[in-house]
Amino acid sequence: MHELSLATSLINLIEREAAKSGFMAVLEVQIEVGDLSGVEADAFGSALELLVSDTILSGAEITILRTPGHGKCNTCDREFLMTTRTDTCPGCKAFPSEISGGEEFRVVSMVAE
Amino acid sequence: MCETCGCGTETHDHDGHTHTHHGLTHTHDHPNKKVVNLNMDILSENNRLAERNRGYFEGKKVLALNLVSSPGSGKTTILEKTIGKMIATRKIFVVEGDQQTARDADRIEKSGAPAIQINTGSGCHLDAKMVHQALLKMEVENNAILFIENVGNLVCPAMFDLGESKRVVVISVTEGDDKPLKYPYMFQTSNLCIINKTDLLPYVDFNVETAMGYARQLNPNLEFILLSATTGDGMDAWINWLKRQ
Questions:
Q1: CATH number of the structural domain B44-244
Q2: CB distance A111–B1 less than 8 Å?
Q3: Which of B3, B25, B68, B218 has its CA 20 to 30 A from that of A97?
């Protein structure tokens, strides 16, 4: 259940960034969680809900954007959508493929005042 | 709900009564609000601290190894036997991560190496800050080996760089030989895979070639060492690997 400590990392990051610019409140936060990032987006969202009270994120609208996994087959160069890190190429069934997207786990932006 | 004015809900209550604001709407603007583009990795602080640890290790020529595995794969026994074989010729230090108890650190100290126990409580992994704090309590000597025994868990520790020189994943033959496929992230981020408890191979349904094949598919650069910490079989290959690093 590392989503709890990841949620703590996010809250600490936002509090640091808000303090740097002298913001008193954070109204919105946009987060990007890739399908291949190793983070369960739903569990991460639930963990955030649990932890935000009494932080600068209390009451903020938190949006989690899911990024699909993308891969390129090392054998036939076909590009395809991946749901897990161990997906085989849908064309030639080869494995492994080079992951080209979906590993993101980052905060995109915030709206603060 | 907005902390400042309470907007964001249709009505709210004070002391049990529900009311609406008189003359103010809940859709007023926040004139000072600003959009800030951050584009920051959420683990950036951990990664920054990990790089500090890494710099410290490189400066002191310390070989820092992050040992990860499922619970019960035999990490602590491997360390006890390794210390027994190497402590006469090489300084060894150990950071032990467990949710509870100092039992593993006690075992390590009995085998002759200084150890610091980190209890993560409800946490399921070590992070770079915990390792940094452990290093403040234990002076690791130059040219030493530092073993960081992570919490037994093949999922969570994969995401957290500790600043280690190399990551070593340990599996035992009493687990399934399809373990690499089930926990691909860990095998993709490791440099060496130790397959432990080989003395039990005649009694279990574990195919070494199958396990190594799956792991190699995920990570073609992964090295392998087969050993039994209990019988000592294969330990020399492991000791030689350590000396080569």
A1: 3.40.50.300
A2: no
A3: B68
CB B26 within 8 Å of CB B7: yes
Q: In angstroms, what separates the C-alpha of B120 from chain A's closest C-alpha?
A: 11
Average pLDDT over residues B181-202: 96
- Phi, psi dihedral angles at B182 (to 5 degrees): -75, -30
Looking at the complex, does the CB of residue A60 fall below 8 Å from at least one CB of chain B?
no
Q: Which of A39-48, B15-24, B140-149 has the lowest mean pLDDT?
A: B15-24
Q: Which residue carries 């957290």 as its tokens?
A: B160
Query: Rounded distance, CA A95 to CA B203, Å?
Result: 32
- Site from A35, A104, A113 to mutate, B interface, most B CB atoms within 10 angstroms: A113
Q: What is the ipTM of this complex?
A: 0.90
pLDDT of B85 over the 60 cut? yes
Q: Indicate the CATH number of A3-112 among 2.60.120.620, 3.30.2320.80, 3.30.1390.10, 3.40.50.2000.
A: 3.30.2320.80
Please work out, in degrees rounded to the nearest 5, the angle formed at the alpha carbon of residue B203 by the alpha carbons of B198 and B209: 50
- Asked if the Cβ–Cβ distance from A113 to B158 is below 8 Å, we say no
* Contact: A84, B184; criterion CB under 8 Å: yes
A16-20, A75-79, B17-21, B106-110: range with lowest mean pLDDT: B17-21
B97-145: per-residue pLDDT in tens? 998 999 999 999 999 999 999 998 878 899 999 999 999 999 999 999 9
- What are the residue ranges spanned by the domains of chain B? 44-244
Give alpha helix (H) positions in chain B. 44-59, 75-86, 103-110, 128-137, 179-182, 184-188, 208-218, 235-244
